[in-house]
Structure formats: structure tokens, C-alpha cells
Amino acid sequence: MSDHPQPAQMGHGYGETPEQHARHSSIPLTKHFGLPPYTEAALFYIWAFSSWLLEIAASVCGSYFSTGDYRFIATATPCMFCSWAAWLQTAIQMMQRASWVRDESNLVDRRRYLYLAVRLQRLMLPTALIALVTFIVAYVRRMDTDDVGNWLFFLLVFIFNIVGCVMNAYNNITWESDRLEYEEGSSPYGNTLLSILGIPSEPSKEQEYKE
User: Fold this and answer.
1) Of 89 and 32, which is predicted with more confidence?
2) Cα 151–152–157 angle (5° rounding)?
3) What's the domain of life for this entry (predicted)?
4) Whole-angstrom Cα distance, residue 180 to residue 110?
């Protein structure tokens, strides 16, 4: 087994021949709707960080005031807007590179798709965690505050995001990561658990998946 050549020595993964691997370079770049990668990524993180800060602010306002108070509405509404903006921005990019529309030989689109799937986890997991903590506190205090809307709102936010995380991890991250590693021999998302948490196992290699 130790005599078996490794992907780094072969120049390709175990799942394809050198000829098949060489054909990847002949696949023309596909133009997609949207902003350039760096601009698009910067906008995503602006939406994401804004949504988290506003979600924390909404949780504080919901605890001290009621969900009908203007301070809660003024923080919860833009929180949802920013969160959905980041989610839809990423989802639209993924749909343009999904398996039902792309050429499976187009490694550029497949790498980008995997990167976007991992990035989606980075949005949904913190959002779900903030919502879960807020829900627990609000539910424990529900008899004192008599505000069903407060704990129900954060419960729904938690459910949507945690279900999205599970589906994204199962349908996109594990599937695409395993396939790319089998065909290319390596992937910045080789550690499945870290990828599900939105963390690349090889950050230095993630750059080629972003572009």
C-alpha cells in the first residue's frame, strides 16, 4: 500500500486518468451573473456582520422591552434584511454553479460552488447560535415578560438556520468535498467537520476556490 503513488505525485486524484485531468484546462470559463469575487465576498461579510450585530441588539431590546416596541422593530427588521441579503446573495451564486446547470468537468465552477456552500455555513451557524441563546433566555422568562412574540421569533430564526445548516452540510459540502478530493487529490475542505463549521482545513488553498 505504501508503494501506491499519492495524488501529489500523480498530479491528479485517484478518480480520474491523467488524460481526463488534462481536459479540465480546456474547459472555457463560464460567465456568471454577479459582482467580481472580491467585491461579492466583501459585500457578503458586510451583510453578515451587520445581521449578527443587529440580531444581538434585537435580542437585548426584546428582553428589556416588548416585541411591539419600536426599538425591537428597529433592530429586528434590518437584522432580517441583512441576513436574507447575505443568504440570497450566496444562494444565487450557488444556483448558477449547481450540478444541474454546470459542466461537471468545469472544476472552477465546482470549486467555487463548494466555497460558497462552506461560506453559507459561516452565515447560518452564528445566526442560529445567537438565536438559540436568546430563545432559551426568553423562554425561561416567558411568564414574567408575557411576550410570546419574543421567544417565538428567535425560535423560528434558530430553526430555519439550523435546518439550513444540516441540509447544506449533507447535500452540498460533504458531497462536493469528497468528489473534488477524489478527482483532484486535495481540497482545502478535506476535514468534513471543520468544513461544516465553515472553517477550511487548509486556509492557504482556499484562495483558488474563491475565484
Assistant:
1) 89
2) 100
3) Eukaryota
4) 8
Q: What are the domain boundaries of the chain? A: 35-210
Q: Could you tell me the pTM of the whole model?
A: 0.81
d(CA 171, CA 55): 28
Nearest to 172 by CA among 105, 85, 95, 88: 95
Tell me the three-class secondary structure of the chain, residue by residue. Answer: CCCCCCHHHHCCCCCCCHHHHHHHHHCCCCCCCCCCHHHHHHHHHHHHHHHHHHHHHHHHHHHHCCCCCHHHHHHHHHHHHHHHHHHHHHHHHHHCCCCCCCCCCCHHHHHHHHHHHHHHHHHHHHHHHHHHHHHHHHHHCHHHHCCHHHHHHHHHHHHHHHHHHHHHHHHHHHHHHHHHHHHHCCCCCCCHHHHHCCCCCCHHHCHHHHC
* Cα–Cα distance measured from residue 114 to residue 176, given in angstroms and rounded to the nearest whole number: 6
The closest of 175, 205, 206, 208 to 192, measured between CA atoms, is: 175
**Digit-coded pLDDT (tens) for 156-184:** 999 999 999 999 998 888 888 878 777 77
C-alpha cell at 63: 428582553
Q: Could you identify the residue written with the cell 481540497?
A: 187
